[in-house]
Write a structure and sequence with these properties.
Blueprint: E1 15-24, E2 27-36, E3 41-50, H1 60-73, E4 81-85, H2 97-105, E5 109-113, E6 120-121, E7 131-136, E8 139-145, E9 154-160, H3 164-174, H4 186-195
Parallel strand pairs: 1-4, 4-5
Antiparallel strand pairs: 1-2, 2-3, 5-9, 6-7, 7-8, 8-9
Length: about 200
Protein backbone atom coordinates (compact mmCIF):
# COMPACT_ATOMS: atom_id res chain seq x y z
CA UNK A 1 0.00 0.00 0.00
CA UNK A 2 2.86 2.40 0.80
CA UNK A 3 4.18 2.05 -2.75
CA UNK A 4 0.84 3.23 -4.14
CA UNK A 5 0.66 6.31 -1.88
CA UNK A 6 1.77 9.68 -3.22
CA UNK A 7 2.86 12.87 -1.47
CA UNK A 8 1.77 15.91 -3.43
CA UNK A 9 -0.04 19.22 -3.20
CA UNK A 10 -3.71 18.33 -2.58
CA UNK A 11 -4.88 21.32 -4.61
CA UNK A 12 -7.70 23.59 -3.51
CA UNK A 13 -9.45 22.29 -0.40
CA UNK A 14 -12.86 23.72 0.49
CA UNK A 15 -14.54 20.79 2.26
CA UNK A 16 -12.91 18.40 4.72
CA UNK A 17 -14.30 15.08 5.94
CA UNK A 18 -13.34 13.47 9.22
CA UNK A 19 -13.90 9.81 10.07
CA UNK A 20 -13.59 7.89 13.34
CA UNK A 21 -14.59 4.46 14.66
CA UNK A 22 -15.47 3.58 18.26
CA UNK A 23 -15.97 0.14 19.79
CA UNK A 24 -18.03 -1.43 22.52
CA UNK A 25 -17.00 -5.06 22.77
CA UNK A 26 -17.21 -6.51 19.26
CA UNK A 27 -19.62 -3.82 18.08
CA UNK A 28 -18.43 -0.75 16.19
CA UNK A 29 -19.97 2.64 15.51
CA UNK A 30 -18.34 4.57 12.68
CA UNK A 31 -19.02 8.23 11.96
CA UNK A 32 -18.07 10.60 9.16
CA UNK A 33 -18.60 14.37 9.13
CA UNK A 34 -17.97 16.98 6.44
CA UNK A 35 -17.22 20.62 7.28
CA UNK A 36 -16.10 23.62 5.32
CA UNK A 37 -12.90 25.48 6.24
CA UNK A 38 -14.94 27.70 8.53
CA UNK A 39 -15.73 24.58 10.60
CA UNK A 40 -19.41 24.66 9.60
CA UNK A 41 -20.89 21.16 9.45
CA UNK A 42 -22.28 20.24 6.03
CA UNK A 43 -23.07 16.53 6.33
CA UNK A 44 -22.79 13.52 8.64
CA UNK A 45 -23.15 9.75 8.43
CA UNK A 46 -23.18 7.04 11.10
CA UNK A 47 -23.09 3.26 10.71
CA UNK A 48 -22.96 0.40 13.20
CA UNK A 49 -22.11 -3.28 13.04
CA UNK A 50 -20.01 -6.13 14.35
CA UNK A 51 -16.27 -6.13 13.79
CA UNK A 52 -14.66 -9.06 12.00
CA UNK A 53 -11.00 -8.27 12.74
CA UNK A 54 -9.30 -8.27 16.16
CA UNK A 55 -7.28 -5.36 17.52
CA UNK A 56 -3.64 -5.85 16.47
CA UNK A 57 -1.22 -2.93 16.98
CA UNK A 58 0.02 -1.65 13.62
CA UNK A 59 -2.85 -3.26 11.69
CA UNK A 60 -5.60 -0.76 12.47
CA UNK A 61 -6.47 -0.40 8.78
CA UNK A 62 -7.78 -3.98 8.64
CA UNK A 63 -10.02 -3.44 11.68
CA UNK A 64 -11.22 0.11 11.12
CA UNK A 65 -10.97 0.44 7.34
CA UNK A 66 -14.23 -1.33 6.42
CA UNK A 67 -16.38 0.52 9.01
CA UNK A 68 -14.79 3.84 8.04
CA UNK A 69 -15.54 3.21 4.37
CA UNK A 70 -19.16 2.38 5.27
CA UNK A 71 -19.58 5.66 7.10
CA UNK A 72 -17.96 7.64 4.29
CA UNK A 73 -20.18 5.93 1.74
CA UNK A 74 -23.21 7.26 3.62
CA UNK A 75 -22.24 10.89 3.03
CA UNK A 76 -24.22 12.81 0.44
CA UNK A 77 -21.87 15.81 0.48
CA UNK A 78 -18.60 15.48 -1.42
CA UNK A 79 -15.27 16.47 0.12
CA UNK A 80 -11.82 17.53 -1.07
CA UNK A 81 -9.74 15.97 1.70
CA UNK A 82 -10.20 13.31 4.37
CA UNK A 83 -8.83 13.50 7.92
CA UNK A 84 -8.49 10.17 9.70
CA UNK A 85 -8.12 9.44 13.41
CA UNK A 86 -5.00 7.37 12.87
CA UNK A 87 -1.65 7.48 11.13
CA UNK A 88 -0.61 7.92 7.54
CA UNK A 89 3.08 7.76 6.69
CA UNK A 90 4.08 7.83 10.39
CA UNK A 91 3.73 4.05 10.54
CA UNK A 92 6.25 1.17 10.63
CA UNK A 93 5.32 0.21 7.05
CA UNK A 94 4.61 3.84 5.99
CA UNK A 95 0.98 2.87 5.44
CA UNK A 96 -1.39 3.53 8.33
CA UNK A 97 -5.16 3.78 8.23
CA UNK A 98 -5.07 7.20 6.53
CA UNK A 99 -2.90 5.82 3.74
CA UNK A 100 -5.15 2.80 3.18
CA UNK A 101 -8.32 4.88 3.03
CA UNK A 102 -6.70 7.46 0.76
CA UNK A 103 -5.46 4.89 -1.73
CA UNK A 104 -8.76 2.96 -1.76
CA UNK A 105 -10.81 6.13 -2.28
CA UNK A 106 -8.11 7.96 -4.28
CA UNK A 107 -8.62 11.15 -2.26
CA UNK A 108 -6.13 13.34 -0.39
CA UNK A 109 -5.88 12.09 3.19
CA UNK A 110 -4.22 13.19 6.43
CA UNK A 111 -3.60 11.08 9.51
CA UNK A 112 -4.06 12.75 12.90
CA UNK A 113 -3.23 10.88 16.11
CA UNK A 114 -2.61 11.61 19.76
CA UNK A 115 0.69 9.71 20.08
CA UNK A 116 3.52 8.70 17.74
CA UNK A 117 3.60 5.11 16.57
CA UNK A 118 7.16 5.45 15.26
CA UNK A 119 9.83 8.12 15.08
CA UNK A 120 11.40 10.82 17.20
CA UNK A 121 10.53 14.53 17.07
CA UNK A 122 13.22 17.03 16.15
CA UNK A 123 12.63 19.28 19.17
CA UNK A 124 9.29 20.34 20.65
CA UNK A 125 6.74 22.85 19.36
CA UNK A 126 6.50 25.79 21.79
CA UNK A 127 3.54 27.92 20.73
CA UNK A 128 0.20 27.13 19.08
CA UNK A 129 0.84 26.93 15.35
CA UNK A 130 4.37 25.59 15.81
CA UNK A 131 5.39 22.17 14.55
CA UNK A 132 8.51 20.02 14.38
CA UNK A 133 9.36 17.11 12.07
CA UNK A 134 8.88 13.53 13.22
CA UNK A 135 11.77 11.41 11.91
CA UNK A 136 11.98 7.62 11.65
CA UNK A 137 15.02 5.81 10.26
CA UNK A 138 16.34 9.03 8.75
CA UNK A 139 13.07 9.90 6.99
CA UNK A 140 10.58 12.62 7.91
CA UNK A 141 7.31 10.72 8.30
CA UNK A 142 5.16 13.36 9.95
CA UNK A 143 5.11 16.23 12.42
CA UNK A 144 4.26 17.06 16.00
CA UNK A 145 1.85 19.99 15.77
CA UNK A 146 0.82 22.17 18.70
CA UNK A 147 -2.71 23.40 18.03
CA UNK A 148 -3.72 24.70 21.46
CA UNK A 149 -1.82 25.99 24.53
CA UNK A 150 -1.59 23.69 27.52
CA UNK A 151 -2.18 20.52 25.48
CA UNK A 152 0.01 17.81 24.01
CA UNK A 153 0.84 18.19 20.32
CA UNK A 154 -0.93 16.08 17.72
CA UNK A 155 0.87 13.69 15.39
CA UNK A 156 0.10 14.69 11.80
CA UNK A 157 1.21 12.67 8.78
CA UNK A 158 0.32 12.59 5.10
CA UNK A 159 -1.75 9.61 4.02
CA UNK A 160 -2.17 9.87 0.23
CA UNK A 161 -2.13 12.70 -2.33
CA UNK A 162 -1.14 15.24 0.34
CA UNK A 163 2.23 16.65 1.38
CA UNK A 164 3.29 17.27 4.97
CA UNK A 165 3.11 21.07 4.88
CA UNK A 166 -0.40 21.02 3.47
CA UNK A 167 -1.43 18.44 6.07
CA UNK A 168 -0.11 20.59 8.92
CA UNK A 169 -1.72 23.75 7.50
CA UNK A 170 -5.15 22.12 7.20
CA UNK A 171 -4.98 20.71 10.73
CA UNK A 172 -4.10 24.16 12.08
CA UNK A 173 -6.88 25.84 10.06
CA UNK A 174 -9.58 23.51 11.41
CA UNK A 175 -8.46 23.21 15.05
CA UNK A 176 -8.27 25.74 17.91
CA UNK A 177 -5.60 27.76 16.08
CA UNK A 178 -8.11 28.31 13.26
CA UNK A 179 -11.86 27.87 13.55
CA UNK A 180 -12.15 24.82 15.83
CA UNK A 181 -13.07 24.63 19.50
CA UNK A 182 -10.47 22.08 20.68
CA UNK A 183 -6.97 20.95 19.82
CA UNK A 184 -8.45 18.42 17.39
CA UNK A 185 -9.47 19.40 13.85
CA UNK A 186 -13.20 20.09 13.88
CA UNK A 187 -14.15 17.35 11.36
CA UNK A 188 -12.42 14.77 13.58
CA UNK A 189 -13.80 16.20 16.82
CA UNK A 190 -17.33 15.91 15.45
CA UNK A 191 -16.75 12.41 14.05
CA UNK A 192 -15.26 11.26 17.37
CA UNK A 193 -18.27 12.55 19.31
CA UNK A 194 -20.72 10.89 16.93
CA UNK A 195 -18.87 7.59 16.95
CA UNK A 196 -19.11 7.56 20.74
CA UNK A 197 -22.82 8.38 20.65
CA UNK A 198 -22.48 11.96 21.88
CA UNK A 199 -24.70 14.41 20.07
CA UNK A 200 -22.95 17.56 18.87
Amino acid sequence: MARRAREEDPGEVRKVAGVDVAYRGDRYRAAAVVTDLGCRELDRSVTEGETSFPYVPGYLAFREGPPALEALDGLEEGFDLLMVNGHGKAHPRRAGLATHLGVVLDVPTVGVASKPLVGEPVGEPDEPGDWVPLVHEGETVGALVLTRPGTRPLVVSPGHRCDLRSAVDLVLRTSWTGCGSTKWPEPLRLADALSKGREV
